[in-house]
Amino acid sequence: MPQELKEEGNSLFQKCDHKGVMLKHEKALNLLPMNHTDAAYLRSNMVACYMQMGLGEHPRAIAECTLALGVSPRDSKALLKRARCYEALNRLDLAFRDVYNVLTIEPNNLTTLELQDSVKMAMDEMSVTVNENDIESFDYELSGESSQLLKVVKRS
Known about the structure:
Blueprint: H1 2-14, H2 18-31, H3 37-53, H4 58-71, H5 76-88, H6 92-105, H7 110-125, E1 138-142, E2 150-154
Antiparallel strand pairs: 1-2
């Protein structure tokens, strides 16, 4: 059943039916254990919908990215999408952190390198400074019964 809902959601995504995608994916998520690998994929698709729906939906996209990272902490796509949302919301320090974390996983990711340049340029324009040595990498773990609960765990 979750697989069917996932496929139906993917079909709706091709038709730009964002609300339909989210409905199907939410139903699929409710049928899966909260730490199932498909949960990260479903949430990532929901993030793409929120991002396409406009700036007002970026906070929801960020929340979904964080939940996806709870399942798959080294998901560079989720980190990159969240960085793009943070950049759009002028949360450049958080965008920079996520870009940094993607580059620790995939140092030659061209899309991320381009985003890094964009974020750095925006930070310079807004006089925002972040010392790269002070940036910490984090893992996100799901905790409790609800996938809405996350705790941040510092990686050593």
